[in-house]
């Protein structure tokens, strides 16, 4: 952007200058010398701008902080062009005085030199800052990745407060109660131990928990009610994704289903193949992750 801006400024300035000077050719040899110096500077600036344009291609993502400076330079270039045009117009109205044109060209040469120096300094400063900051950015990224890897490698509870669903509901016993984190040894269930409850007398009732991402499943825990109904769950299958990891065969209060093989899943669900309901206090899933699709290893 700097390079295009400079190229445009020089071109516009040069065109405006040539038009005015063709209409009012200089008679002073010193003016001609200044014009030649301006032409050389314009050519050097154009060549340097083209070179800087190639160098700036690889720094586009790191040059966002220079946008305000670009806008400022653009405003200055417009202002400089307007001032130059006004001065040349004023000189045209005073053709008898050649010293005015000489001052205009002198000022123009000086402003182009200053603009060239400003762009070079800004470009060099930006490159130096990027070179200084890059190692620290890389170090911070490595540290962050290590923290993420440690967090993902820890076996932890990954189901609490996640989205729960069941294909039927009995009364007010919604599926959210199975992941609400409330599971005590109290026999009261209205407030102390709320539970989910599917409809009665239906076959293939299903309760599902969506983990929100793909995790490596370690253990699934099911908490039965203390006041009744444990026998209803005999024969309920426990799935992690499409993998069957266990079936309920007894009436314990707490049922553990450790995963023997490597199983990745984003959903865990229970299916009652028998005709009857399910009403668990809590369903807990423990695992590691989350993992992207290309990180999932089967087997």
Order of helices and strands: HHHHEEEEEEEE
Multimer state: single chain
Portion of residues within helices: 40-55%
Helix and strand composition category: alpha+beta
Tell the overall outline: rod-shaped
Approximately what portion of the residues adopt beta-strand conformation? 15-25%
Query: What is the average per-residue confidence, as pLDDT, rounded to a whole number?
Result: 79
Summed up:
Helices cover 44% and strands 21% of the residues. It has 299 residues and is an alpha+beta fold.
Description:
The chain is an alpha+beta fold. It is 44% helix and 21% strand. Strands 1, 2, 3, 4, 5, 6, 7 and 8 form an eight-stranded antiparallel β-sheet that branches. A hairpin with a 2-residue loop joins strand 4 and strand 5. Helix 1 (2-23) packs antiparallel against helix 2 (29-57), helix 1 (2-23) runs parallel beside helix 3 and helix 3 runs antiparallel to helix 4.
Relevant terms:
rod-shaped; alpha+beta; 299 residues
Task: List the topology elements.
Blueprint: H1 2-23, H2 29-57, H3 67-92, H4 98-153, E1 156-157, E2 163-166, E3 203-223, E4 236-240, E5 243-247, E6 254-258, E7 264-275, E8 282-291
Helix pairs in contact: 1-2, 1-3, 2-4, 3-4
């Amino acid at each position: 952007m700097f390079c295009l801006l400079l190229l445009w400024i020089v071109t516009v300035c040069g065109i405006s200058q040539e038009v005015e000077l063709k209409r009012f050719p200089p008679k002073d040899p010193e003016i001609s010398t200044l014009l030649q110096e301006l032409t050389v500077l314009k050519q050097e600036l154009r060549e340097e701008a083209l070179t800087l344009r190639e160098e700036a291609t690889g720094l586009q993502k790191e040059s966002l902080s220079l946008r305000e400076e670009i806008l400022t330079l653009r405003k200055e270039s417009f202002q400089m062009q307007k001032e130059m045009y006004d001065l040349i117009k004023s000189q045209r109205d005073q053709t008898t005085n050649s010293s005015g044109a000489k001052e205009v060209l002198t000022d123009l040469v000086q402003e182009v030199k200053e603009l060239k120096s400003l762009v070079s300094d800004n470009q060099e400063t930006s490159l130096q800052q990027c070179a200084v900051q890059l190692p620290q950015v890389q170090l911070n990224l490595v540290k962050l990745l290590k923290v993420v890897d440690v967090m993902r490698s820890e076996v932890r509870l990954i189901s609490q407060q996640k989205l729960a669903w069941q294909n039927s509901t009995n009364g007010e016993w919604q599926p959210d109660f199975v992941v609400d984190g409330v599971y005590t040894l109290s026999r009261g269930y209205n407030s102390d131990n709320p539970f989910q409850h599917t409809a009665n007398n239906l076959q293939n009732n299903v309760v599902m928990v969506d983990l929100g991402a793909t995790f490596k499943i370690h253990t699934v825990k099911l908490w039965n009610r203390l006041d009744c109904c444990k026998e209803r769950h005999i024969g309920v299958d426990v799935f992690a994704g499409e993998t069957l990891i266990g079936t309920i065969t007894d009436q314990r209060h707490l049922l553990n289903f450790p995963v023997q093989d490597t199983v990745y899943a984003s959903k865990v669900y229970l299916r009652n193949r028998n005709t009857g309901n399910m009403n668990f206090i809590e369903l807990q899933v423990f695992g590691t992750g989350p993992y992207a699709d290309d990180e999932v290893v089967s087997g």
